Amino acid sequence: MPQQCLFCPNVINSAEHLFSKWIIKDLKMAPAVKVTIGRAPSTWVANPDIKIPSVCKPCNNVWMGNLETANQSVLRAMINDDPMWLSKKDQAKLCRWALMKAMIIDSVNPQRPLFYCSAERTEVKSATIPIGTLVWLGRLSRKAFHAGGTDVWGEINKIPKAFHGNVTSFVMGHLVIQVLSGHCSGDSCSKWPVRWL
Ligand SMILES: [Zn+2]
Fold first, then answer.
1. What are phi and psi of 65, to 5 degrees?
2. pLDDT tens, 126-139?
3. 3-state SS string over 81-131?
4. Less Cβ around it within 10 Å: N or C end of the chain?
């Protein structure tokens, strides 16, 4: 786990909820959660209120908190399968929220280098969606809980592993969100973000 906040130079002194408390309370679900990090054996956690210590208090309490609040009404509607209209502005806000959560999940495994680089994390903090990121929404007919991230690689022009992607999937009640971000040619994501066609 990095000692520096994911989104600013401050030291880590706060933890972000994987599933926000209001989501767990709203859904009236308290399932045991299977936690798998890297290649370590899975464990079951009785309380779904999982916190990930990778940010500082000012980030968590200010811009991350504001982003959560700004998305609460649309998230609540979709989580509960209530009909609603998602404006372009709502889509942009939700995309930023999902990406922020994906970056939190990206930081869970201390054995693995972070996928998202500091430039991408800074962009999300400053209300921009980095190039090379796509976000999908889906609807699940039954209620469920899931959050997980995985790395994927692909070939470009017969160069193996020239593409490195990170996929983060969330299921919250009836709402499914998937975030895909891609980098090309090595670790320097700021140089070669994927431009999806
Ligand atoms: Zn911070």
1. -65, -40
2. 988 888 899 999 99
3. CCCCCCCHHHHHHHHHHHHHHHHHHHCCCCCCCCCCCHHHHHHHHCCCCCC
4. C
pTM for the full predicted model: 0.87
Q: How far is the CA of 189 from the centre of ligand 1 (A)?
A: 21
Q: Please answer whether residues 67 and 7 qualify as being in contact, where contact means their C-beta atoms are separated by less than 8 angstroms.
A: no
Q: Report the distance separating Cα 106 and Cα 86, nearest Å.
A: 27
Count of C-beta atoms within a 10 Å radius of residue 48: 19
Would 197 be classed as within a structural domain?
A: no
C-alpha 87 to ligand 1 mean position (Å): 29
Centre of ligand 1 to C-alpha 92, Å, is 22
Q: Is residue 88 part of a domain?
A: yes
Domain count, the chain: 1
- CA–centroid distance, residue 13 to ligand 1 (Å): 9
CB 71 within 8 A of CB 22: no
Average pLDDT, the chain: 85
pLDDT digits (tens, 9 = 90+) for 57-107: 999 999 999 999 999 999 999 999 999 999 999 999 999 999 999 999 999
